[in-house]
Amino acid sequence: MTKPRRACIIGHPVKHSRSPMIHGFWLKSFGLEGSYEREDVTPDALEAFLRGLAARGYVGGNVTIPHKEAAFGTVDRRTARAEALGAVNTVWFEDGLLWGDNTDVTGFLANLDDRAPGWDDGLDKAVVLGAGGAAAAIVAGIKERGAKRILVANRTAEKTEALIRRFGSVVEAAAWPPSAATFAGAGLLVNTTSLGMDGKPGLDIDLAGLPAQAVVTDAVYVPLETELLANAAARGLRTVDGLGMLLHQAVPGFERWFGRRPVVTPELRALVEADIGR
Ligand code: NAP
C-alpha cells in the first residue's frame, strides 16, 4: 500500500496561514488521504529543513514569508518564473532533485482573468503601488500580458530601481504617493503595499485621475474590501479583491504533490471568506 502523501507550508510565523484550509478542502473534495501541515521554521534553520524535506516524509510544500528568497538559493532546480523573480514559493521533487517555482504570477493572472475578464485587452499602461515581493510577481505577470508601460510607485525608491533592473525599461519609476498624472490613461491599478491590511494604516489616495474603464485590484485580502477597493467601487470602477490570487496560486502546488489538478470553486472561496470574516 502506498503511504498518504504529505506536503506543508514553511514560514515564520506560519500559524495564521490559510494554505492548510485551501489544500485540506481539495484533499477532502478529491477523497485523497494526504495531508498538508504547518511547519514553523526559523531563518537559520531553513536550508537544513529544505535539504531534509524528503527525509521528514514530505513530497513538497509552499514557502512563505520570510523564506522565499532563501528557498530560491537552496533548491536544486528552478522554473523560468522563479528565475525571473529570484523567489520561490512552491517546492517539489523530481528525480530526486528539489525544484522551486513561483506561483504568485499564476495566482495574480488567474484571479484577474476570472473576476475581470478582458482586463488585459489592449492594456497599454498599468500602475503598481509597492515594490516588494508581491510587486515583483505582479509586475512579471503584467509584463507577460503585454503591457507597454508599468509605472511603479513605492515609498523606497531603491526598491523600484531594483524592479527596473530585473524587468527592464517596461517598468518606470513614479512618485510616492502617486499623483493624478501617474494614473492618467492607466487601464489597471494594483496595490501591492501592505497598506490597507488589518492592523496597518489605510491606503487613502485620490483615484480621480484613473480612466472610467480602469480595473483596480489589491493584493491585500484581509479585509476583503480594502479602502482602496471601496473608493474605486464608489467611483464605478471594476474592482477585484486579493483573495482569488491566494486561492489560484495554490493550484500548481497541489497538482504537483497530489497528482490532481484542483479548481477554485465558489465553495472554496466561501470557506476562506468565512474564515477572514471571523
Ligand atoms: P514586502 O515585500 O514586505 O513589501 C511591502 C510593500 O509595502 C513595500 O513596497 C513597502 O514599501 C510597502 N509599505 C509598507 N508599509 C508602508 C507604508 N507605511 N507606507 C508606504 N508603503 C509601505 O511584502 P509583500 O510580500 O510584497 O506583501 C505585500 C502585501 O501583499 C501584503 O499585504 C501581503 O499580505 C499581500 N500579498 C498577497 C498575496 C495574495 O495572494 N493575495 C500574495 C503575496 C502578498 P517600502 O519598500 O518603502 O518598505
Secondary-structure map:
Layout: E1 6-11, H1 19-30, E2 35-40, H2 46-51, E3 60-63, H3 68-74, E4 77-78, H4 80-85, E5 90-94, E6 97-101, H5 104-115, E7 125-129, H6 133-144, E8 149-153, H7 157-167, E9 171-174, H8 180-183, E10 188-191, E11 215-218, H9 227-234, E12 238-240, H10 243-249, H11 251-258, H12 266-277
Helix pairs in contact: 5-6, 5-10
Bound molecules: NADP nicotinamide-adenine-dinucleotide phosphate.
Would you give an account of this structure?
The protein has 278 residues and is of the alpha/beta class. The protein has two domains: 127 residues, Rossmann fold; 138 residues, 3-Layer(aba) Sandwich (Rossmann fold). The strands form two sheets. Strands 2-1-3-5-6-4 form a six-stranded mixed β-sheet. Helix 5 packs across helix 10. The model has no long low-confidence stretch (mean pLDDT 96). The structure holds NADP nicotinamide-adenine-dinucleotide phosphate. The site of NADP nicotinamide-adenine-dinucleotide phosphate has 25 residues, from helix 5, helix 6 and helix 10. NADP nicotinamide-adenine-dinucleotide phosphate (NAP) binds next to helix 5, helix 6 and helix 10.
